[in-house]
Amino acid sequence: MDAPARFKAVFLSDLHLSEELPETTRAFLSFLENEARQTERLYILGDLFQYWVGDDAMAGDAYLLRIVNAIKAVADSGTAVYWLCGNRDFLTGKKFLKATGATALEEPGLFTAGNTRIAFSHGDALCTDDEAYMKFRAKVRNPIWRFFFLLVPLSKRKSIATNARKDSAKSKMTKSAKIMDVNLDAVKDLFRKTNADVLIHGHTHRPGEHPIEMPDGIKRRIVLSDWDLDDPKMPRGDWLSVAADGAITRHAL
Ligand code: LP5
Ligand code: MN
User: Fold this and answer.
1) Which residue out of 47, 172, 181 has the highest number of ligand 1 atoms within 8 Å of its CB and is therefore the one to mutate?
2) Which of 20, 30, 224, 235 is the most buried (most CB within 10 A)?
3) In this structure, is residue 1 part of a structural domain?
4) Which residue's CA lies nearest to atom 29 of ligand 1?
């Protein structure tokens, strides 16, 4: 990066990339060519992919390799790329990180700009009212489950993931909007533990900003949108920038 970067940090999440979403894919590749090179740090907050069934899926998959190589080009250009997985791509591993040049972070991540302390996460771990999902999450995030799942042949893993997507869509139709949103106590707990001023997360696909009352003042919970530039009725794709003084701006594609 020759000229000083325009932003200290940029955040995005929930692109759910797949070959079936050509406009969303195009928008992300263009974002990587442009905005992603104007920031010191790029934070990808999970669910970048529709699903990720293991790093071995990259070999011979021209689509995945195109995405991964485009992220690597950003890292090579001088932007520090950080990766925080989502509920659809928690199976990303060391080979993915090497291929993208990204650094993996644990939740919640922390970043300070000016006097603003920013915590960030994918967001699913905060949805504690969704008990069925919490149980599912605990199972699939267990390293023993992960070890055995990754031994299953790749084609079988892909069909399991496709079925899991269908089951997920079905189960969401039976859950209320409130259950699938973040739990206020979980959010307050995160603010207490991190001492952050701002929390940025995705996952709920409900872009917005919410004041959170804490004993030491009002905190801000900022929610990213998902991306879907292939939806003719509501094309969308937000990203957030953080300036050197800590000012946070929402940008729409
Ligand atoms: O993703 P989204 O937004 O549609 O919904 C999520 C929760 N769903 C999921 C499931 C993923 O979408 C499936 C794709 C992931 C592929 C990863 C690799 C393959 C893993 C294969 C696993 C078998 O995360 C959804 C939430 C929603 O967010 C809102 O927060 O509600 O939760 C669910 O749909 C989960 C169901 O409620 C419970 C499912 C019980 C099924 C139990 C099977 C256990 C199998 C585990 C094996 C040990
Ligand atoms: Mn998610």
Assistant:
1) 172
2) 224
3) no
4) 180
